[in-house]
Specification:
alpha/beta, eight-stranded parallel barrel, two-stranded antiparallel ribbon, globular
Length: 446
């Protein structure tokens, strides 16, 4: 079986563990200049047992096989089952994935300003305890990220921490409780409990009769939320919080990468927030607001990459991106576009090296029903990979929720024919409910 670039690092690390048990170190890396530039998150109160790892071999010390194939599997918070999420379920999914031939697990550890790991910069998610938001911050008695790292690495596969970038809270659930560490809903607003002063400038804004108005907490507000309350990608303190979360994970857990989702605007009408408008108007030479939004987000993505590599040079930065980058003549069907509709310049990130890999999310009803549409979008993304001359990777996203597993095989075969660096399958829950683990091992991943 082919493996990902960090697989050989894992093999070397496991071999070193066998030879030098007395030199075992904790998984936390040392502080760097990147951390010193920004305030460090408060020291966490560790309430669950943490694993111990051997020193890592850096990527440039290992000889990577250029023909490696990424076989990634998304494991979302919903794949862990109804709250309270169970450790046994997570361990079983990772073991089944390894048996099936997957070599990268993309485990969701942040959804809406919460943590599926010991805090840290952000509070425990309530879903590990119950379905009630009042349990936000409650210690569930186990650490999913620590369990996942230990389980994946024991099987010789990679574990990447998957974070939602700009979905700050759930829509129409009411405000989260005040806890420590304080949730982003309050922290980003510089909330003052004495005066009850709350600054909504961090939220995405849309214009209502020409007036920039922040997204509300409910579907009935003038600027309604939908699934999530979104933070603005144009607000610096939102990005600084993202960086604090990434630094926290990278310094305390032996993850192989950071994987970002929802790393875009929620739509064309956003975000006319005060900070974005001020920065755009000060730009010289003048650019359109839409171009400023794309450029500003791209600059922050480049900073994410810089700080991640400063902390852990071997770590991979990847992102789940919109299924269509820009519509081309070959796309004869209606489609929304990441570049124009969500200000997500994903191909630029890849070609500039701001992202090591992108995983286009080419799944769902439309693309599961018509493989020809899937192929057209897949080919366009792989062309962007080719433009990087081997420096960037495209992991073509595909669904697993088919009545016929042959549809999965056909997509993986086509990805290989295009020369894609690999595939990313959505999701562990779909594979498990369909019972397709053995089909992967006996078929495309044998």
């Amino acid at each position: 079986m082919a493996f990902t670039s960090n697989h050989w690092l894992r093999v070397a690390s496991l071999a070193l563990a066998a030879l030098l048990p007395l030199f075992a170190l904790g998984g936390a890396a040392s502080m760097t200049q990147a951390q010193e530039r920004s305030p460090a998150p408060p020291a966490p109160k560790v309430t669950v047992e943490k694993p111990v790892y051997m020193p890592l071999v850096q990527r440039d010390e290992a000889k990577a096989d250029p023909r490696q194939e990424v076989r990634a599997l998304w494991v979302s918070r919903f794949d862990l089952g109804s709250p309270p999420s169970k450790q046994e379920r997570l361990e079983a999914l990772i073991d089944r994935a390894a048996d099936a031939g997957f070599n990268v697990i993309l485990l969701q550890v942040r959804a809406t300003g919460d943590a599926y790991y010991t805090p840290g910069a952000e509070p425990w998610t309530y879903r590990l305890t119950s379905s009630n938001i009042s349990d936000l911050g409650r210690d569930p008695g186990w650490d999913p990220l620590a369990v996942a790292v230990r389980t994946a690495h024991a099987r010789g596969i990679e574990l990447h921490a998957y974070l939602n970038a700009f979905t700050a809270w759930e829509c129409s659930r009411g405000a989260p409780p005040h806890i420590q560490p304080e949730h982003a809903y309050w922290a980003l607003a510089n909330y003052d409990p004495a005066t009850k002063a709350y600054d909504p400038a961090w939220r995405v804004h849309a214009r209502i009769e020409g007036t920039p108005t922040p997204m509300g907490d409910a579907k009935t507000d003038p600027v309604a939320c939908s699934e999530y309350l979104w933070a603005s990608p144009g607000v610096s303190r939102v990005h600084e919080r993202n960086l604090a979360v990434m630094r926290d994970i990278l310094t305390r857990y032996d993850v192989d990468g950071i994987h970002l989702d929802r790393v875009r605007y929620p739509g064309r009408q956003y975000s006319h927030d005060p900070e974005s408008l001020e920065a755009w108007r000060a730009t010289a030479p003048a650019v359109s607001f839409e171009n400023w939004q794309r450029d500003n987000l791209s600059r922050w993505i480049a900073r994410y990459q810089s700080e991640i590599k400063a902390l852990k040079p071997a770590a991979t930065l990847s992102a789940a991106v919109w299924f269509t980058y820009k519509k081309t003549a070959a796309m004869t069907f209606p489609t929304s576009q990441g570049y124009f509709d969500y200000y997500q310049d994903s191909h630029r990130w890849l070609t500039e090296g701001s992202m090591d890999a992108i995983a286009p999310m080419i799944y769902g009803t439309t693309f599961n029903a018509d493989i020809e549409k899937w192929k057209v979008l897949a080919a366009d993304h792989v062309a962007a990979q080719e433009a990087t001359q081997g420096k960037g990777q495209v992991w073509l996203g595909l669904g697993a929720d088919f009545d016929d597993f042959g549809q999965v095989t056909a997509r993986i075969d086509y990805a290989r024919s295009l020369g894609a660096a690999g595939v990313a399958v959505w999701s562990a829950g779909a594979v498990d409910s369909r019972g397709y683990w053995d089909e992967f091992r006996a078929g495309p991943f044998k």
